[in-house]
Structures are given as structure tokens and as C-alpha cells.
């Protein structure tokens, strides 16, 4: 039996995660404990459930309630994911839901879900494949759409895990997970504090057996299809923000700087597009 709650206005505090809290407030919604995030669309919600995230509630539009519930049931049944049980499902009419910010971008049901703690770097890397692991590091990538697109490419092209600096956009931001099509729940990932990364990040990876490849243009830059990269046992591909790019210290401490060969007159690609090409060349596609 569904726990359906029909509402006639948006004033209920139960709707705060959907109506009144921004991404930062959601992140801190539970005090010192991991907070909340919003998952959008039955497919994204199902992937979050399958990855072990628990829903606090759902919000659905009355006129498409049957469709969204059917889509969600189908996804959960197909992937043997546990049902929603008595999770509150708030139902509102079209006029009310149109008042939500970003309404015209909605892709069906919304769910407020509890975050889970992230492991530290040592524990995170210990969970990855022991043979020939390939990881990505996102340094100060602040655009949520780029973060989501990078995750989607990583899932498709054989990247075993992702490390996200704390000054990057959060992979669980609504726009990130929407662009990623829920692959933020599929690819293993963790955070690293931005200050820790800036002062010791590359050295930490070296200490844990990884060689690092910074995507940057320098005098000693090698192509992403350089044969020596394929011979590296443990490789971390480091991607930086658009505009400023990677920090000079990151580049200087890395074992390689790598580039994508391009036509004359063009010196760079959007970071999400660049990541897809690098992952295609350097990822573990045979393991997918």
C-alpha cells in the first residue's frame, strides 16, 4: 500500500527539500550527519535506490502519478531493487508543481534522499580493482553539468573510480545527477578536501602506487594515445576547470601531462568532451 499524501499547497515543511532549501542547505540538512540531495526522474531514483541510498520522501505530479509510479516499479523490478515501502509520497497538482524552480526541466518524479558517508582516500582506493585501475580526479570543476557529463562518460568508458575535490560541484547536485543519468550512483567516487589536494594530493596518489596524468598543454605534453600510458599499472587522469585549468603545482608534480591532438587553430575542448576522449583511450573498457 502506497503512502500517498495529497497536498493542496506548498506550505508544508515536509516539502522544504523541494521548495525552500538550496543545494548547500540540503547538503547540511542533517547537521553533522550526511545531508540530503534531490534525485529526479524514476530512472535516476531507481539507480540511487539500487546503490543503497534511502529516500526521505518523493514528490509527484497528480496528473502523471500513475505513469511515474509505473515507471519506478518497472525499474525496481527489472533490477531487483527493494520497493519504497511506506516512504511518504507527496502528490500535488500541475498548478502547484509549476511553481517549483526549474519546473520546465523536470523529468517526472522527485525524491529527497539521504546522503551516505564517503570513505577517505586510502579506503576508497582499496575498494577499486587491484589490476590496472584507472581513476579520474576532478580538480575545481565547478559546473554541475560538466561533472555529470564526466561521470556519464566514466561509467561508459571504463573508469574505475572518481575523486572529486571539495571545491568542485557536488556530483549529487540535482543538475549533476540529471546530466549523468544516474551514473553518479554507479561509478565509485569520493571527495578529497581541496586544501589537502592542493598541498599533498598528487603525492598521496604516488604514495598509494598511482602515476598521474594531468590534462594540460606544456612543452613535454604527450598525446593521450602515447604507448607509455597504456603500460602504466595504476593511472590517475587529472582534469581541471574550464578557463583556469589545473593548478601549476598539480601539473608540476604529475608524472605526465597529456593532450588530445586537435586541428590547427583550436587548443582545447570543453572538459566534459575532453574527458570522454581521454577515458576512451585510457579506460578499462574490456572490464565493462
Automatic annotation (TrEMBL):
GO molecular function per UniProt: RNA binding; RNA methyltransferase activity
Boundaries of every tRNA/rRNA methyltransferase SpoU type domain copy: 135-279
Keywords: Methyltransferase, Transferase
Protein origin, superkingdom: Bacteria
GO terms of biological process kind: methylation; RNA processing
UniProt EC number: 2.1.1.-
A Pfam cross-reference name: SpoU_methylase
Record-given protein name: RNA methyltransferase, TrmH family
Origin species: Limosilactobacillus antri DSM 16041
Amino acid at each position: 500500500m502506497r503512502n500517498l499524501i495529497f497536498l493542496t499547497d506548498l506550505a508544508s515543511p515536509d516539502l522544504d527539500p523541494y521548495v525552500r532549501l538550496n543545494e548547500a542547505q540540503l547538503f547540511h540538512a542533517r547537521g553533522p550527519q550526511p545531508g540530503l540531495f534531490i534525485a529526479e526522474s524514476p530512472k535516476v531514483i531507481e539507480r540511487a535506490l539500487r546503490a543503497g541510498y534511502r529516500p526521505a520522501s518523493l514528490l509527484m505530479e497528480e496528473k502523471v502519478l500513475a505513469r511515474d509510479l509505473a515507471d519506478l516499479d518497472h525499474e525496481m523490478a527489472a533490477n531487483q531493487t527493494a520497493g519504497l515501502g511506506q516512504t511518504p509520497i507527496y502528490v500535488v497538482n500541475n498548478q502547484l508543481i509549476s511553481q517549483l524552480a526549474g519546473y520546465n526541466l523536470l523529468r517526472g518524479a522527485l525524491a529527497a534522499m539521504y546522503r551516505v558517508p564517503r570513505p577517505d582516500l586510502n579506503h576508497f582506493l582499496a575498494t577499486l580493482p587491484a589490476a590496472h585501475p584507472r581513476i579520474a580526479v576532478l580538480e575545481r570543476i565547478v559546473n554541475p553539468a560538466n561533472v555529470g557529463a564526466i561521470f556519464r562518460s566514466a561509467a561508459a568508458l571504463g573508469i574505475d573510480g572518481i575523486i572529486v575535490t571539495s571545491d568542485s560541484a557536488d556530483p549529487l547536485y540535482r543538475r549533476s545527477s540529471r546530466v549523468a543519468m544516474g551514473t553518479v550512483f554507479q561509478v565509485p567516487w569520493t571527495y578529497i578536501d581541496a586544501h589537502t589536494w592542493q598541498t599533498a594530493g598528487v603525492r598521496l596518489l604516488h604514495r598509494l602506487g598511482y602515476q598521474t596524468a594531468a590534462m594540460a598543454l606544456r612543452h613535454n605534453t604527450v598525446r593521450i594515445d602515447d604507448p607509455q600510458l597504456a603500460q602504466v599499472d595504476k593511472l590517475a587522469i587529472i582534469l581541471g576547470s574550464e578557463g583556469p585549468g589545473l593548478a601549476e603545482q598539480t601539473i608540476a608534480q604529475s608524472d605526465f601531462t597529456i593532450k588530445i591532438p586537435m586541428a590547427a587553430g583550436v587548443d582545447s575542448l570543453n572538459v566534459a568532451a575532453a574527458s570522454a576522449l581521454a577515458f576512451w583511450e585510457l579506460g578499462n573498457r574490456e572490464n565493462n
